[in-house]
Amino acid sequence: MIDGWKRYWLAYQELGSYEAVAKHFNVQGSTVRRAIKRAARRGEINLTEYQNPPGYTVSKSTVHADAEGNVIQEWRRITPEAEDIEEWVDSLCDRAGRAGPKIKAPKIKGNLAGEIPIGDMHVGMMSWEPETGHNWDVDKSCKMFNDGSSHLMGLMPKETKHVILADLGDFLHSDNRHGTTEKSGNVLDMDGRFCRIIDKARDAWITAIEQAAENFASVHVIMAPGNHNPHASHWMARIVAAYFRKCKHVTIDTSPKSHRFHFWGKSLLGYTHGHLIKPQQLASFMAASCPAWWAESIHRHMRQGHLHHAQKLTHQDVEESHGVTSEIFPILPPKDAYHAERGYESRRLMQAILHHEEHGEITRHTVHARMLEK
User: Fold this and answer.
1) Domain topology for 100-372
2) CA 240 to CA 166: how far, in whole Å?
3) How far apart are CA 21 and CA 27, in angstroms?
């Protein structure tokens, strides 16, 4: 004997309406409708001819039915199956080698730290010069990231013993193989296959961190999630952490939080993409998030990306509130088609900030995109 929703579903396929099924089993029509809809939400049946893509399951289903209970239209929200995501991340860790070479920390006597806030890199974005004024693809973005960070690390004085590589979010242009943003579903201009993009991005991070590990006594890496890569930032950090697990002087922030903090010397540094919290809240948020570091620090700075349009940066680059300096950092990538159509312009550069252990920020170095394109 078939129990539960299955008998309702078999009868529905034969009788064609919820009311007919209810009458056949002598139950309420709502009982039949709820049972079938629950099964549809679990992905156990399809109320339409549509088939889920491999590896996806239905997380929510909304059905439009007529007065007799016949399905007219259905809206389905599908999400990747958790098992597939875990297998995917495991395979990425395998390809990263799980543990890379053991790099010995150099002995450096000094009282300086170098900080490189990395504005939105949008690795995977495609930009076509006839349309936007610049060419941009996966290979170019990774090369520019590596060349820019290498150039800035090379400018740091020999007394620099600590370095911070801080991704401010949106390092990847998209979080999925469909090339869309998660919340709005905007279709993005992507360069190639998703797996190729993440392979290239992973290798770019490994290259940058290896250089830092070879030249500085301690290295700290932060990958803040952005609106383009709310998930990728987390699994990329874990892949990189697995690769560098033999390097005791390299630490990778794998916090599940959207906002990150780092304390060095007398400086408290905060990192966020900037799409989830208002600039006016950053000072109080920093104090509430890490009160012990707040009490010990003298110099307090919040870094964010996201707003990389020049008209929003010109006279508001740095704002100080309650002893916290909040700063939006520019980016290296050019415009994509969306931003070009709307006339947006961005300063294309990357900066390194030098901090003294006691006195805080003492100087900056800048590398412009046009310097790296030569």
Assistant:
1) Purple Acid Phosphatase; chain A, domain 2 (3.60.21)
2) 14
3) 8
